[in-house]
Design a protein that fits this description.
13 helices, alpha/beta, about 350 residues, 10 strands
């Protein structure tokens, strides 16, 4: 069995589906010494690469998610969540869905400028934009690059509504901008919470904020009037499904005004990475977890069909869904998020015109 890499979710780096070349590193004496001393390999260093994309807004027609337009300042995510459904997107860049996804981060340095260009276009129809729809816009490197904050500055200038989805306390850094947007019914935040168990969270999501910090983020945003809710995602059958009621109760206590949840998805190579992770951390629970997943996925580890991919099917999935609805009612939190408005959208220069009462 391989020795785990410290601070990473994926424990291996399999070839991508579209790879033509294969690289295998030779053993290193320093790594060997560290492994012998600590029982762990040092986590691979993260590399940040320029992404020269010339378009910044992505569009989708999925009936399973509540937005059709999104903005992702980064490709890949250093949070390293082993279950992340976005991992296979890295294979289209020639990388692996494994450790490459969390150590080869593509940075869209011109994201704010590209966003401004889009919103200034006469044909732009103001609509809700999700930050982010794929990888977390508040992953650790955001502290340095501040691309998400600069994009929020653009959204604030135009008063275009935005929904933020994150599992990092760093979102509270931007409560000034989110608060400004919220005053125009143009901002909402979902803080993702998978578990209240700090040890499990560290294994599932190695570089994301721990559960207590995420609840603190909910509390801080609520205190300044930013609509904020908790997204229990993903619910992992046989591992975190029993925590749903407790997470919703904690969310209510922290000041969340709405909640949502989704079931675990394991598209393409994510299923093998997740199996490897279970074998590493929870070998005695592995078969039980996988059996429950297959039970709600028609005998497979993944179901890509619209309508069922986010919630599962069968008695097991329906039981979890019923439990979550009952728990939300008991906690007194609605399952519908706030309705955002485009009524206050303004074109570039609107701030100056407002000075004259226009």
């Amino acid at each position: 069995m391989n020795t785990p890499a410290r601070g990473r979710g994926a424990q291996s780096n399999p070839d991508g589906r579209f790879s033509r070349l294969r690289y295998e590193a030779d053993g290193d004496a320093v790594d060997a010494a560290l492994e012998e001393a600590s029982g762990e390999l040092p986590g691979p260093l993260t590399q940040f690469l320029r992404d020269s994309t010339q378009s910044i807004l992505a569009h989708n027609d999925s009936p399973d998610i509540g937005f059709d337009t999104s903005l992702n300042p980064y490709r890949g995510c250093e949070h390293g969540c082993v279950y992340c459904y976005a991992r296979p997107t890295h294979e289209f860049l020639g990388f692996s869905a494994g450790q490459d996804f969390e150590t080869r981060i593509m940075v869209k340095e011109n994201a704010p400028e590209l966003l401004r260009r889009e919103l200034e276009k006469p044909r732009w129809q103001p609509r809700v934009v999700a930050l982010s729809g794929v990888t977390d816009c508040y992953q650790p490197v955001e502290r340095k690059f501040q691309l998400t904050r600069r994009c929020l500055e653009v959204f604030t200038e135009f008063r275009n509504p935005v929904v933020v989805i994150t599992k990092n306390h760093l979102v509270t850094r931007d409560k000034d901008l989110l608060g400004d947007l919220a005053r125009h019914q143009a901002a909402a935040v979902y803080v993702s919470g998978t578990t209240l168990d700090a040890t499990l969270a560290k294994r599932l999501e190695p570089r994301a904020s721990p559960p207590t910090r995420r609840l603190a983020a909910v509390r801080e945003l609520a205190e300044v009037g930013v609509p904020v809710g908790v997204l229990v995602a993903p619910i992992v059958p046989g591992l975190t499904d029993h925590e749903g009621p407790a997470i919703l109760a904690a969310a209510a206590e922290a000041g969340a005004s709405y909640v949502g949840w989704t079931m675990l998805r394991l598209p393409y190579g994510v299923s093998s990475l997740f199996e490897e992770w279970l074998e590493r951390h929870y070998p005695l629970k592995k078969e039980k977890v996988l059996a429950h997943i297959r039970e709600m996925r028609g005998g497979k580890l993944n179901d890509k069909e619209f309508g069922s991919r986010m919630r599962g099917q069968g008695r097991y999935a329906e039981g979890i869904w019923t439990l979550m609805h009952m728990s939300a009612r008991r906690a007194g939190i609605p399952t519908d998020g706030p309705e955002l408005s485009t009524r206050h959208f303004r074109r570039s220069g609107g701030a100056q015109l407002d000075l004259f009462g226009s």
